[in-house]
Amino acid sequence: FIQCYKRNQIKHRLSVIKCAVMIALLIIMEKH
Questions:
Q1: Which CA distances in Å does 9 have to 1, 21, 27, 28?
Q2: Which residues cross the membrane (predicted)?
């Protein structure tokens, strides 16, 4: 996630949001 954030931080904020969403989905999947 950190690598994804650093890569997209300069390019597009939307890409950063996508990275955060992916991590959130992974966490949710792990809980269920």
A1: 12, 15, 22, 24
A2: 12-29
What is the value of pTM for the model shown?
A: 0.49
Locate tokens 């650093």: which residue? 6
Domains in the chain: boundaries: 2-31
According to the 3-state scheme, what is the secondary structure of 1-32?
CHHHHHHHHHHCHHHHHHHHHHHHHHHHHHHC
- What is the pLDDT at residue 24? 92
Residue written as token pair 């949001």:
17
